[in-house]
Amino acid sequence: MDEMSFKNKAFLHGGDYNPDQWLDHPDVIDQDFKAFANAKLNAVTLGVFAWDRLEPAEGEYHFEWLDEMFDRAAAQKMNVILATPSGARPRWLAANYPEVLRVGEDGQRNQFGERHNHCYTSPIYREKVRQMNQKLAERYGHRKNLILWHISNEYSGACYCDLCQAAFRKWLQAKYQTLEALNHAYWGAFWSHEYTDWAQIEAPSPRGDQNVTGLNLDWRRFVTDQTIDFFDAEVAPLRAVNPDIPVTTNFMGGNPPESDVFDALDYQKFAQHVDVVSWDSYPNWGNDYESTEQLAMKTSLMNDTMRSFKHQNYLIMENTPSKVNWHQFNHAKRPGMHSMASLQEIAHGADSVMYFQLHQSRGASEMFHGAVISNRGGTQTRTFRDVAQLGTQLNQLKGVVNTHRKVAKVAIVFDYDNMWALADARTYANASKDYWKTIQDHYRYFWEHDIPVELVGVNDDLTPYQLVIDPMHFLMRPEFAAKLKAYVQNGGHLVGTYISGVVDGDFLAYQGAGMPDLITTYGLKVTETDTLYPSQRNSLRIFNQKYAVRDYCDLVQLTTAKALGTYGEDFYADTPAVTCNQLGRGQADYVACRTDADFLQKFYHQLVQRLQLQAELPIQKKTTKVAIQVRENDTTHVYFVINYSHEPTLVTVATPLTNALTGQTEQGTQAIAGYGVKVYRN
Amino acid sequence: MDEMSFKNKAFLHGGDYNPDQWLDHPDVIDQDFKAFANAKLNAVTLGVFAWDRLEPAEGEYHFEWLDEMFDRAAAQKMNVILATPSGARPRWLAANYPEVLRVGEDGQRNQFGERHNHCYTSPIYREKVRQMNQKLAERYGHRKNLILWHISNEYSGACYCDLCQAAFRKWLQAKYQTLEALNHAYWGAFWSHEYTDWAQIEAPSPRGDQNVTGLNLDWRRFVTDQTIDFFDAEVAPLRAVNPDIPVTTNFMGGNPPESDVFDALDYQKFAQHVDVVSWDSYPNWGNDYESTEQLAMKTSLMNDTMRSFKHQNYLIMENTPSKVNWHQFNHAKRPGMHSMASLQEIAHGADSVMYFQLHQSRGASEMFHGAVISNRGGTQTRTFRDVAQLGTQLNQLKGVVNTHRKVAKVAIVFDYDNMWALADARTYANASKDYWKTIQDHYRYFWEHDIPVELVGVNDDLTPYQLVIDPMHFLMRPEFAAKLKAYVQNGGHLVGTYISGVVDGDFLAYQGAGMPDLITTYGLKVTETDTLYPSQRNSLRIFNQKYAVRDYCDLVQLTTAKALGTYGEDFYADTPAVTCNQLGRGQADYVACRTDADFLQKFYHQLVQRLQLQAELPIQKKTTKVAIQVRENDTTHVYFVINYSHEPTLVTVATPLTNALTGQTEQGTQAIAGYGVKVYRN
Amino acid sequence: MDEMSFKNKAFLHGGDYNPDQWLDHPDVIDQDFKAFANAKLNAVTLGVFAWDRLEPAEGEYHFEWLDEMFDRAAAQKMNVILATPSGARPRWLAANYPEVLRVGEDGQRNQFGERHNHCYTSPIYREKVRQMNQKLAERYGHRKNLILWHISNEYSGACYCDLCQAAFRKWLQAKYQTLEALNHAYWGAFWSHEYTDWAQIEAPSPRGDQNVTGLNLDWRRFVTDQTIDFFDAEVAPLRAVNPDIPVTTNFMGGNPPESDVFDALDYQKFAQHVDVVSWDSYPNWGNDYESTEQLAMKTSLMNDTMRSFKHQNYLIMENTPSKVNWHQFNHAKRPGMHSMASLQEIAHGADSVMYFQLHQSRGASEMFHGAVISNRGGTQTRTFRDVAQLGTQLNQLKGVVNTHRKVAKVAIVFDYDNMWALADARTYANASKDYWKTIQDHYRYFWEHDIPVELVGVNDDLTPYQLVIDPMHFLMRPEFAAKLKAYVQNGGHLVGTYISGVVDGDFLAYQGAGMPDLITTYGLKVTETDTLYPSQRNSLRIFNQKYAVRDYCDLVQLTTAKALGTYGEDFYADTPAVTCNQLGRGQADYVACRTDADFLQKFYHQLVQRLQLQAELPIQKKTTKVAIQVRENDTTHVYFVINYSHEPTLVTVATPLTNALTGQTEQGTQAIAGYGVKVYRN
Fold it and tell me: Which residue among B49, B360, B362 sits closest to C191, beta carbon to beta carbon?
């Protein structure tokens, strides 16, 4: 699969459709398809959770209704994304094979209930899924309007049954080979924790061990691997029938209140198994604890993160046209917000706007989750009009398809192992570790100044970037330290921070001064890290100013680095707080403490000036509440100018550009409405 | 049973007495009975939790001590209320028949412990209770001083054992007849949740399903029905022996911090099975987060609620003369408060003031719960004096017995199904649904202005009322919408609010514009409901003023209604926020948003003027800290004038009235002490 | 064992050392021992948690490495404290004998995991521990550098397995002899809770009973007794081999956020079984919610508490040279703080400064707990230098060894039974009981004024003290009331407070006016206790001033006492709030309400004047941020002058004294650095 996910001639616009809820009301289905046309929908996701309609009793398959949906879709030129139904098993399956029910960390097996509640290891569940997927592949794998497989739904969670415990042991055996190696990694010689038999290994549990940090980390890795293994098993029969249909599964992330990355599965790893990344995006627009601009920044970061997993365009598989039903406060999108939010994601490289769901459920868990066709009002709603309007806009943007996000010169390092280990580190302060928030803090300047940023993992190539930012890299392998060193020596500019290079890949502490390559890179040794209580502050003296410092201060001893700024207070006053180190043709800066935003803004401002990373755009804005993203290909440049505020504002178009939503040429001062969007192209 | 609960010549004054604690100390019991006389007690409740003294080993009964208590009571003309002891089973019963122990929602069976901890379904428990009740009925059912059966104690809770699960399935089968009907109601076609066998049904559980809202609602209904079924089984042997002794069970409600109605059992339904409603009233007088006046308003509402279950006089079965031991802060009643609080309940239609308990326990769970005779001080206490003083007052009020609360022209609709469904609705914001608080908010104006209010259920007749207020009626059946329409058409005045008529009795969403009868009634369609974050505000422009709006805003489209007020802000500024609709001979107002109290005060003020609902009283007060309630019969009018403030105040008696507590005639300006009460009669 | 714990010629300086973590790296161990010498360490604790290195498979013992450690220690004249390894059992032991795994209060058996996780009752575990301890005693019991046995580690927790339940029943049978007696104590006649068979007894549990306060209290007592019984069983084989080696086990206490006493085990009782008290001290120096001075006061109280358990010198068995890894915020000790904190403990009677641990673990649970030799930096750290500096200081203080804390004339009563009962009392307000904080509040004046205080238990002799303070003595036995009376009659001065003498040793309420001896002692009867809500205040009028009163007010009726102060508000305004009673040759004051600190300061100030309890010191300070503690023996007086502030200050040395840390004679004004310490001797 190349950079463009589907070489579509249009962005996908549609969503989850579960006619299985109205099979006894064909009139509803008739009206729904008419409504799809009216809303300019061109894609429909079928089959999510539909297992009991497809196989109501073991071995008794009913595909007629699904056939009809394919036909109806085809009749109005809608693409179909077909889901495997494994996200919710039927009751008969649980009744016949209790082993498919997940076991909790307390060792108790669940009853039937909810979704995503099955054991990933169970051979029977895998076999039943294989049979179903095989049937689906055979029946629909060559349908012309099938464009994508949607595997299961929002994989997550873990099972602690005996089968999973055994699989975990096998996974550990493959990894460590010997108990000696495992005991060393888990530092079992302390607390009499050495295993003398593989059979003694149990997953972390509140009834057993929760403080063996190496074990905790391996369990998280195993859960990802076992989930991927299950995913791969789901995919096998599909690919066997038609290898040309790409596969995805819908990832999660960006949820309130932190708008942070999903942390239960290593998506960087998982993404290597899907053909295209897709995700479900549910920001809580209009909340009362942050500005729309702030939430937009965080949501842009989440989009950049999703794009970064494969460094290619991605899909929005779910979002809501109005509001969800599971936020703490289920606040309606204001007029304009749906278009604003949807085009934000397109601007970052999404090639779709898909909804959960097209027709709202009448009852049970999801009956209040916003949908294109509502219980209250049907299609005679503000929501439906918003969707139809977006449909029109997406049609007007057809020319933008086959572009990708402007290539970034700035990268931020993000790593799941590090996130997990840092969260589990029994030191610092759990209340203030804030790994993802730190990434947001470093991202902010670039977003506000319309400078594209790519997220990179530890296995990614750093050489394409002029600036690499590597915040709070607590668990860092020597290989990555070497990569950082090489990057700088070859002319890169690196910015690192406090709490980096503390433990290795086994979660064992580095000894002495730490990794030589890291010391060489930053030109300093960290002697200790001071953790501040919430109300305590130090200060940073730099740029002839004083900035507030909170939470964490690395105390450093310079080898080759120079101090750019020093601490203002306490027993380490006057020691280096921000440093720079010339190495080879590059430079590595070390921000040894956590500062408030104003320092980072100033710091990155001077760095951007120096490295000439400024966005060069034919459009000037007057406020950071407007963000401008660029999609492009060899011939086309498209500028998404989005106003993340309820107040209108002005932008200046320096050279004549085509307004892609109207076809008009515009130049000079242009007004943008509150929550308004302008899309210009050359 | 008629309007007066017992045709007593006096209010009942007494309480729970457990001499079973001092059977080895007859001197204590001697002194207790002397103290009862000194405190002017005329009723004693015996036998609560006394099972192991009545049947210390299986089949070995000991009634001698209870006989003696009946005799002692008779000797000093005290009535006896006799409890069935099922609220706390003896240890031998649990040891011999473990099935009587309740099973938790996690599936684990409890050990012996606490109270109210038995399975309501267990045939063995029912049989043991039947045997005991049969014995009690035979031995005491014709005792002259037996006036009432007190069935068990404060029924509540649920059991999840296999017997209960089976009973639940049977209950569902009787309700739905077919799995198709049940699957439709639970919207099982989504998430592959369709049942294919009745045996697959399990009660909601954290280990299973908690998001099938229809199932959750049915489980709550079943728990009520099964509890009532157990209650009916307890009553059967009693009635068989002497059908003339009325039965009750003590309800709960009004507890801190919200002073809200008890929500675990549908008391509206349960009340139809008792002969007289009784309840346990424990307001936290003197707390620091609301004024005494506010708490008095909420407590008046609770009394009106209890009265409304059968629309007849009721009993206070428990209260404390001093303080309880289970509030967060166990603060002593200030001087005067006990009389103030007791006469408040009499004023609302209570025919008793009963205490838990008459003699304080020396040890274990309840040893610090306030009692008439205390551990510390015995009868030489402020508390005992307060009780004796109230005894004197109640004697002076003998003439008030055989009156009932003044008939109300104003009704507020309250419904358990609606309360449960709204609480479980996966939308809006759990933090701000506040159903009972909303009822309190609407009740407040009338209470402050001494206008009687009746609570009505959905099965009640609305025609007696000039004004019906129906707040947040989220789950509403079509039959009730029709009833509202007929009520208005026939000249009634209806006030409804935001979030009404959203789901039907199965918890399924109404489609399209909603119930036609509701649209006709209010003359409008709700197009969407906006949920605000806690700090967000809209405003309401009405009466040439601007009022703050928070939490919820229905956006409406008028059909026949007219806007009385409009929103002041946001994208729905200038659209209707308060409306009125003329229909037939009546009018229906719709308050589409949640406002602060000042709007409701103004709104109801003009409505009361217009409908001429003002209280016409021969006593004028100067402050809303004084409330005046009226009890009456054909010939007598009794005015309870209560000062809910620690500050003295004045009232004006317009025409000469008898002070019922002194026998004096009073007229003109009269002083009322802090927490003071005046009772006047014509 | 006499007053001096070891007749050492030096304070012990060292800590936990687990070379078992580096047996495969002899170079590490070589370096470690060199570092010990550099840090002036003279003691090493070996074997804590080392079971699986000592017995890696059942019956297969490996002592060679431990032999070597003894030899290495001996070679550099280091003492050895040898731990029994029972705090963490090996995996094979749990695998072979699952009964050793603890069962939770929910009845579920734990998996292997964590530490301190074994059943104390299990005969098999006791036998395995006996075998191990026997081996250790035989091999090391006569080693010359063995100075102390360290039994297990931080005993705590409870097990609810069938063996423990049976032991609990046996314990109860021994205590009560008959079920009648037990039923009376548990007040089982109420709620049908009478036991009819000993087999019906179960430990308190959320699945069973949690409200039988007598049962709860007995369970806590049993847990202490069973723990001690296990401890005694551990000690038996050690003493059998060499009765001359003293034994200890490390107690806990003083942890954030309250710096309160450990409440899971009755250390007053446990201490009678150890030869010397030792404890693990981890104050969170430098936190942001209290001043260093406040935390120092609380930490001094904890040290006084530990000393009071045997009224003799004690050991610091663990502390951190830098920071721990389990505080909410793991904040580094500032320069000077390590010496300040260590000498504070020496000043109060500690004879050691021992660390957890000497060489930091590389992995797992404790890898970030501060240690003498760190992962980061090894010995090239601020921490190592702090330790070495303290080593030097301790060497300079050799002459101070063989002194004890100056004998106190002031005692505060503290009792575990009372603490447990008060915490479990179902009355007052759980949010404001604050028993330990109340002790801190009463201790504060004396600490600020350098007046030594001893904690005393209810079995202690009160006659040595001029002033006894007995705060919130809720559970008080008649014997202790008699002791208080005798104390006062014989000339003692007693101060008691609200909420005293409420229940007896069985947790049964005293009847009537309460214990005659207590009434005689204080000359008053308490008629009721008023519990205030958090924002409510009364006031106390005394000393011609008005002080704020909060939380609790006893209302009292004087018999022979006189009022010193009266309440200012509410219905008990003008009644006595602080009283004094002359009795025999002494006086008993009763502080009937909880006041803010300023009253207590004033109250104790006048009392200290009157009783002439002022500290008479040759050193004057200018601020309460400096505290002065005295250690002495017949010939020597040593003054520890410690500045608990980051700001330097001055003291005046009135007569020439030797600065024990420099050998210089000093007189007149002397500067003390921030967190600085001066030690003077005559």
Answer: B49
The answer to whether A194 and C52 are in contact (CB under 8 A) is yes
Q: Which residues of chain A are within 8 Å of residue B106 when distances are taken between CB atoms?
A: 108
Q: Which CATH class is domain B410-611?
A: alpha beta
Chain B: nearest CA to C162, how far in angstroms?
Answer: 14
**Taking Cα atoms as reference points, which of B121, B19, B101, B12 lies closest to residue B67?**
B19
CB contact under 8 A, B329 and C431: yes
Q: List the one residue out of A293, A319, A380 whose CA is nearest residue A625.
A: A293
Q: Could you please report the per-residue DSSP string of B465-530? A: -SEEEETT--B--HHHHHHHHHHHHTT-EEEEESS-S-B-TTSPBPPBT--HHHHHHHTEEEEEEE
**CA–CA distance, B519 with B581 (Å, rounded to integer):** 10
Q: Which chains touch A (3 or more CB pairs under 8 A)?
A: B, C
Tell me how far apart the alpha carbons of residues B22 and B35 are, in angstroms, rounded to a whole number: 15
Residue in chain A closest to C56 (alpha carbons) equals A196
> C169 vs chain B: nearest CA distance in angstroms?
16
The DSSP call for residue C122 is -
Query: Which DSSP category does B195 fall into?
Result: -
Collapsing DSSP to helix, strand or coil, B219 comes out as helix
Among A115, A322, A323, beta carbon nearest to B191? A115
Q: Is A447 within any annotated ligand binding site?
A: no
**Residues of C in Cβ contact (< 8 Å) with B378:** 511-512
Q: What is the pLDDT of residues B254-308, one digit of tens each?
A: 999 999 999 999 999 999 999 999 999 999 999 999 999 999 999 999 999 999 9
The arrangement of secondary structure in A12-161+224-402, i.e. its CATH architecture, is Alpha-Beta Barrel (3.20)
Q: What residue of B is the nearest CA neighbor of C198?
A: B91
- Mean pLDDT, to the nearest integer, of C616-626? 97
- Cα–Cα distance measured from residue B135 to residue B138, given in angstroms and rounded to the nearest whole number: 5
Are A187 and C367 a contacting pair at CB < 8 A? yes
Chain A residues near residue C110 by CB distance under 8 angstroms: 207-208
- Taking 90 as the threshold, does the pLDDT of residue B525 lie above it? yes
Superfamily of domain C12-157+226-402: Glycosidases (3.20.20.80)
What is the predicted pLDDT for the residue at C117? 85
Give the separation between CA A99 and CA A102, rounded to whole angstroms. 8
> Are the beta carbons of C364 and A211 separated by less than 8 Å?
yes
What is the reported pTM? 0.97
Residue A362's nearest CA partner among B210, B510, C134, B288 is B510
Q: Is C647 a catalytic residue?
A: no
Residue B157 has pLDDT above 60, yes or no: yes
- ipTM, 2 dp: 0.96
Residue B528 one-letter amino acid? E
Q: Which fold has domain B12-174+232-403?
A: TIM Barrel (3.20.20)
Contact C509 B362 (CB under 8 A): yes
DSSP A186-197: TTTTGGG---SS
Q: Is B326 annotated as a binding residue?
A: yes
The arrangement of secondary structure in A619-681, i.e. its CATH architecture, is Sandwich (2.60)
Q: Which of B200, B414, B443 is nearest to B300 (CA)?
A: B443
Contacts of B367 in chain C (CB under 8 A): 187, 213, 426, 508-509
Show which subunits contact B, needing at least 3 CB pairs below 8 angstroms. Answer: A, C
Residues 6 or more apart whose CB falls under 8 angstroms from that of B440 comprise: B259, B297, B298, B301
Determine whether the annotation assigns residue C115 to a binding site: yes
Are the CB atoms for A322 and B427 separated by under 8 Å? no
Domain ranges of chain B: 12-174+232-403, 410-611, 619-681
Q: Which pLDDT tens digit goes with each residue over A75-92?
A: 999 999 999 999 999 999
Among C571, C537, C527, smallest CA distance to B674 is for C571
